[in-house]
Write a structure and sequence with these properties.
It is built from 3 helices and no strands. By secondary structure, the chain is mainly α.
């Protein structure tokens, strides 16, 4: 019998689908940074059982978020 693995948790992603998450980001109720962090945390929780990630590019995702956030702030300053 195989083990059931679930990544659902009490985070910003909750049990929402991608469309709802996108709407929440658009309405600024959550940030893309929060979504990425939650997704990484979930991946790390289940990966020991699934062994699904060969190459983890979490740092690249985090750096992209930081760049995007910096650009948004620069637009407000100019």
């Amino acid at each position: 019998m195989s083990k059931k693995v679930s990544a659902f948790s009490n985070d910003v992603l909750g049990i929402r689908d991608a469309v709802e998450i996108a709407q929440l980001i658009k309405s600024k109720k959550i940030s893309s940074a929060e979504v990425i962090r939650a997704a990484i945390e979930r991946a790390e929780i289940v990966n020991p059982d699934l062994n699904a990630f060969v190459l983890k590019t979490y740092d690249q995702a985090k750096n992209k978020i930081l760049q995007d956030e910096a650009q948004k702030h620069m637009r407000y300053l100019t």
